[in-house]
């Protein structure tokens, strides 16, 4: 594995302090950058996300990162919106995303007992085995904040239920995504981040 | 299944956590990091830090404590008080807060909600509403951090709940002023009415005094979270015990030990 630092992709204004602290607790330094060489040399790449899908894609495109990210070969982890960006598209402003994984993010429909955004701790259920799930058990809680979600497919490692099941943790080759915030999910989230860094 | 949240609220003034009765006569209850760590260890689902002096007094606030909180916490937290602009919000979020909560500034400049929501996404934008019952209805109050400036905002609470959602609020914290600080239970009637108007998460605030009050507000007002301060600060209710008690009564709640570990 490359000896470089963990890189957090700077797609403009993302709140990454909590992620940096979470990585530091695991003994890993991280670099927040949009520099192509630094990203290519990273041991692991994390794609955080903030704001709306179309804006985030526009910021990635402006930095040329929409072309770079799909070509990365080290382990990549998209978090929250960053996970949704790995897919083909999102209904949020009809955004076209990176297209690395197949599927379209759809908005939760608000209903009694199902406010939108989903905000809070929801339980994971294993969908298929994967090293990211080492030490994680069905019923472990992680923290979600999102209005759009991906359906459960063969790429889903774990799902959660919010008026129907959705993809909580996904993987396809070296690309991974967490719809929840591992950096804000207590010891369970820390274990998943550790599993990612061990890939 | 999404669980109901238990949210200790830490009123911050001059770098200390304080608590008053019905917003008055504040007493010191501890240091910020010490309490943040303790509540995280006792199973709090998130924390709210409310700078009670920041909003009424027009002054620049030292927010470096937000960064120190972000460093020690691995659960989400929200910062309220003194956020009047996109730049203020950006500072707090960059220091590591997960959400920002606005109250009086949103009443003075409702478009602030739209600007914050466009810039950071609705999931970051919490609107706090201080509401007082009057003549069979509920009215919004502002500048409630300072008894000398507290005044009616000339808005019906239910109208304001509708408006802030249309403007992009991602969560509403309803502080029921009649019940705040007196520990006689949440204002179920008001919260249930607001719930009918609320498609975003709704957090109850004001009145928690016993475990039963949490059960009542979840079962009867269907709120997503319950916020409380003095019962936790004074050690009258232990969060681990409370959550176990609620889980035994069928409330979806996050226990620190997941079933598979026990």
Q: Could you list some keywords that capture this structure?
A:
heterodimer, A: about 200 residues, alpha/beta, Rossmann fold, eight-stranded mixed beta sheet, 6 helices, 14 strands, about 30% strand, B: about 260 residues, TIM Barrel, eight-stranded parallel β-barrel, 10 helices, globular, disordered C terminus
Name the helicity range of chain B.
Answer: 25-40%
Question: Which structural class fits the helix and strand makeup of chain A?
Answer: alpha/beta
Radius of gyration of chain B: 17 Å
Based on DSSP secondary structure assignment, what is the total number of beta strands of chain B?
A: 12
Total discrete domains of chain B: 1
The main β sheet of chain A shows up as: 8 strands, mixed
The coarse silhouette of chain A is globular
Mean pLDDT score of chain B = 89
Write out the strand line-up for the largest beta sheet of chain A, numbering strands in chain order: 2-1-3-4-14-13-12-9
Percentage of residues assigned to helices of chain A: 10-25%
Q: Any overview of this molecule?
A:
The complex is a heterodimer of chains A (199) and B (262). Chain A has 199 residues and is α/β, with parallel strands linked by helices. Chain A has helices spanning 17-25, 36-41, 53-62, 65-68, 81-85, 186-197; strands spanning 6-9, 30-33, 44-47, 76-79, 87-90, 95-96, 101-107, 118-123, 125-126, 141-146, 148-149, 156-161, 165-172, 175-178. Helices cover 23% and strands 32% of the residues of chain A. Chain A starts with 5 loop residues before the first strand and ends with a helix. Chain B has a single domain, classed as TIM Barrel (Alpha-Beta Barrel). Chain B has helices spanning 32-41, 64-72, 86-94, 104-108, 111-120, 157-166, 188-197, 211-221, 230-233, 239-248, and strands at residues 5-13, 16-21, 24-31, 47-51, 77-80, 99-102, 125-134, 137-142, 151-156, 171-176, 202-205, 225-228. In chain B, helix 1 packs parallel to helix 2 (64-72) and helix 7 (188-197) runs parallel beside helix 8 (211-221). Chain A binds chain B through residues 13, 15, 17-18, 21-22, 25, 50-52, 81, 110, 112-113, 115-123, 137-141, 143-147, 161-162, 181, 183-190, and chain B through 1-5, 40, 45-46, 67, 70-71, 73-76, 90, 93-98, 119-124, 170-171, 198-202, 222, 224-225, 254, 258-261.
């Amino acid at each position: 594995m490359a000896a470089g630092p963990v890189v957090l992709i700077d797609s403009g204004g993302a709140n990454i302090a909590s992620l940096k602290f979470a990585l530091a607790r695991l003994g890993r330094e991280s670099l927040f950058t949009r520099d192509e060489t630094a990203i290519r040399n990273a041991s692991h790449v994390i794609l955080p996300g903030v704001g709306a899908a179309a804006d985030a894609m526009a910021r990635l495109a402006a930095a040329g990162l929409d072309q770079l990210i799909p070509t990365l070969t080290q382990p990549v982890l998209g978090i929250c919106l960053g996970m949704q960006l790995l897919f083909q598209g999102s209904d949020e402003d009809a955004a076209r995303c990176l297209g690395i994984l197949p599927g379209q993010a759809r908005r939760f429909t608000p209903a009694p007992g199902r406010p939108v955004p989903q905000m809070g701790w929801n339980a994971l259920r294993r969908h298929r085995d994967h090293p990211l799930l080492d030490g994680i058990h069905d019923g472990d809680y992680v923290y979600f904040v999102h209005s759009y979600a991906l359906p459960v497919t063969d790429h889903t490692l774990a799902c959660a239920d919010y008026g129907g099941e959705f993809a909580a943790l996904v993987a396809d080759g070296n690309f991974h995504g967490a719809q929840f915030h591992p950096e804000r999910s207590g010891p369970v989230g820390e274990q998943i981040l550790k599993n990612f860094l061990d890939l | 299944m999404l669980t109901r949240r238990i949210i200790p609220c830490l009123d911050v003034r001059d770098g200390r956590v304080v608590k008053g009765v019905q917003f008055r006569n504040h007493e010191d209850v501890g240091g910020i990091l010490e309490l943040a760590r303790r509540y995280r260890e006792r199973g709090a689902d998130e924390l709210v830090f409310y700078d009670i002096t920041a909003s009424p007094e027009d002054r620049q606030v030292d927010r470096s404590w937000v960064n120190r909180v972000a460093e020690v916490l691995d659960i989400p937290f929200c910062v309220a008080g003194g956020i009047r602009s996109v730049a203020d919000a950006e500072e707090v979020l960059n220091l590591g807060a997960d959400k920002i909560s606005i109250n009086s500034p949103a009443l003075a400049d409702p478009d602030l909600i739209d600007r914050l929501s466009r810039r950071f996404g609705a999931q970051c934008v919490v609107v706090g509403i201080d509401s007082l019952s009057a003549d069979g209805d509920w009215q919004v109050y502002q500048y409630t951090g300072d008894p000398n400036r507290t005044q009616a905002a000339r808005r019906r609470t239910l109208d304001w709940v509708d408006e802030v959602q249309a403007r992009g609020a991602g969560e509403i914290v309803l502080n029921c002023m009649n019940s705040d600080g007196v520990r006689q239970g949440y204002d179920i009637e008001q919260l249930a009415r607001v719930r009918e108007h609320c498609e975003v998460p709704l957090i109850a605030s004001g009145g928690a005094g016993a475990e039963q009050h949490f059960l009542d507000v979840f079962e009867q007002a269907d709120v997503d979270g319950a916020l409380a301060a003095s019962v936790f600060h004074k050690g009258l209710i232990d969060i681990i015990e409370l959550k176990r008690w609620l889980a035994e009564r069928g409330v979806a709640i996050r226990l620190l030990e997941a079933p598979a570990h026990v």
